[in-house]
Amino acid sequence: MLIQKKIENILFLDIExxxxxxxxxxxxxxxxxxxxxxxxxxxxxKTELFxxxxxxxxxxxxxxxxxxxxxxxxxxxxxNGQRCVKGKSFSGDDEKKILEDFAQLLNKYYSxxxxxxxxxxxxxxxxxxxxxxxxxxxxSVPETLNTAGKKPWEVNHLDTMELWKFGDYxxxxxxxxxxxxxxxxxxxxxxxxxxVGHVYWNEHNLQRIVTYCQKDVVAIIQLFLRYQGEKLIExxxxxFLKI
Length: 243
What we know:
Layout (H helix, E strand, L loop, with lengths): L9 E10 L9 H15 L22 E14 L2 E10 L3 H15 L6 E4 L6 H11 L20 E3 H6 L9 H7 L14 H6 L4 H22 L10 E3 L3
Parallel strand pairs: 1-4, 3-6, 4-5
Antiparallel strand pairs: 1-2, 2-3
């Protein structure tokens, strides 16, 4: 596929999220009641029913019950005739600080109409999740994330999963599957999304999660290049600022 966008104008990103509270029993009573109702909805189409506490580990994927602990973002630049990936991660226990710093980046460098954001399943997950958590934290949503009142062609969001569908909306193709199909090194060589909550709340190993998130961003960039029929960027030309 040929995407008529300059790759240098695209910010590629991925987020990692966890439940706001480490355990179901830690939920304030008001939110426990609300999660119980959410669990009923999640069970509505299942043959095997789970109790609310048994599926609480899934709370992190819902912006009302989860929080962001890492946003990794990267762009593609040219240095000495070679394409390079330059990235940065915003991470920590203070979600508001993460979101404020990321909003500052977007407002400074990605506010013009020619700038785009790209993520895998970003239109369904990453972009709305970030916007919702910004509102919850009292942060103004940057223009590039604010879709309210915009026509579809005015929203500067790319989604590597949506691009792969070619209009077929019946299936979901994971990033891990597509990297295998296109012979791109797997970003899931340590942990996967289902383990992030445990690594954060039980192992207290944020750096491990940041590394995983950065690998996802690199995989998204390499997948985008494959879509364009272009060469992958060599590992030696990929770097993230130290945190």
